[in-house]
Structures are given as C-alpha cells and as structure tokens.
Amino acid sequence: MSSRTNLIVRLSIASLFLVLSTAAFADGSHDRTQFGHDITVGPADQVSDVTCFGCSVRVRGRVSSDVTTFGGSIILEDKAQVSGDATAFGGNIHMDDGVRVGGDVTLFGGRLRREPTASVGGDVTAFSGGLWMLLIFGLPLVLLGAFIALIVWLVRLITRHSVPVAA
C-alpha cells in the first residue's frame, strides 16, 4: 500500500472514531443526536441539546437547550418546553397549545404552524417554501457545474489536435 493510501485509510478511521466518540459523549451529557431515526422526548424526559439529521423530533417534555433538525420536522406538543432555540432546515415546525420556546424559532424551507397559546421568547423567522432551499443548495451546485463545464471546454480546446487542410 502506498503512503498516500495509508494516510487516507488512517484519516478515515480517525474520522469514524471521532464521530462514534462524539455520539458516546452526547449520551453522557443528556444530548440526543440521531442520523435518520426520529427522536422522541417524552413527558418525563429532560434533555439538553437535540439534533437530528434526516429525521424529525417530537418533544413532549423539557429540552434545556436547542432543538435542531436538518431535513426533518420539529413537533412540540403537550406543553413542551424548549429553553433555547428551535431551528428546522428543510422541515416544518408545529407548536401546539401551551408550548413554550425560550429562544428563537427559525425555519428554512418549511411551514410554521403555531397555535395561539404557544409562546416564543425570542424572534420568529420563517423562510417558508422550497424556493429558499433551492437558492441555498441548488444555486451553488449549478455554479459548480458551470465551472466544471468551463474547465472541460478549456481542456478540450487546448488539447485539440490541429488537422492540416487538404488543398
């Protein structure tokens, strides 16, 4: 195995170890982090941070810090309490009656449904609809594709062999 391949293997193993050890420490500090599996905070549960990638969070208990989802929704019900912020990227936020969020509620690319008695201690910012997600993620991909097409065109232009014209 070459030294470069060996280095890549070692970095991959170190990265995997870092991700697994972070998840282990999160359990010890009452944080909940999931990838692809929904998280439920029950009425008797008290957790600090809740983070979900590609899944949704349902809170019926108390979260002493923030709730964040990427590609999933946040559902706050049964007088749930979130002391920090509630943030959803590419998902919805639903706030039932009696729910309290101490910080800000921020929503990108989804819909906010808030009952009249749900309270928010900070600001409510909602960039609803799929257009925001398209601008945030789609536009950079289009620009990257155009840059790659330009490079391919330039390489072909430079490496094109000239063919003599027959007289």
> Structural class of the helix and strand makeup?
alpha/beta
Strand fraction:
25-35%
- By DSSP (H or I, 4+ residues per run), the number of helices equals 2
Number of strands: 16
Give the overall shape, derived from the CA principal axes. Answer: elongated
User: What is the first-to-last residue Cα distance?
Assistant: 55 Å
Q: What profile does the largest beta sheet have?
A: 6 strands, parallel
Roughly what is the average pLDDT, rounded to an integer? 83
How do the helices and strands follow one another from N- to C-terminus?
HEEEEEEEEEEEEEEEEH
Helix content: 25-40%
Strand order of the largest sheet: 1-4-7-10-13-16
Low-confidence stretches: 23-28
Write down the domain tally: 2
From the alpha carbons, calculate the radius of gyration and give it in angstroms.
Answer: 24 Å
So what's the oligomer here?
Answer: single chain
Per-chain topology:
Layout: H1 3-28, E1 32-35, E2 39-41, E3 46-47, E4 50-53, E5 57-59, E6 62-63, E7 67-70, E8 74-76, E9 81-82, E10 86-89, E11 93-95, E12 100-101, E13 105-108, E14 112-114, E15 119-120, E16 124-127, H2 130-159
Parallel strand pairs: 1-4, 2-5, 3-6, 4-7, 5-8, 6-9, 7-10, 8-11, 9-12, 10-13, 11-14, 12-15, 13-16
Comma- or semicolon-separated keywords:
5-stranded parallel sheet; 167 residues; elongated; 6-stranded parallel sheet; 2 helices; 2 domains; alpha/beta
Structure description:
This protein has two domains: 1-28; 31-129, no CATH class. The chain contains two helices and 16 strands. It is α/β, with parallel strands linked by helices. It starts with a helix and ends in an 8-residue tail after the last helix. It has helices at residues 3-28, 130-159, and strands at 32-35, 39-41, 46-47, 50-53, 57-59, 62-63, 67-70, 74-76, 81-82, 86-89, 93-95, 100-101, 105-108, 112-114, 119-120, 124-127. The strands form three sheets. It has a six-stranded parallel sheet. Strands 2-5-8-11-14 form a five-stranded parallel sheet, with no helix packed on it.
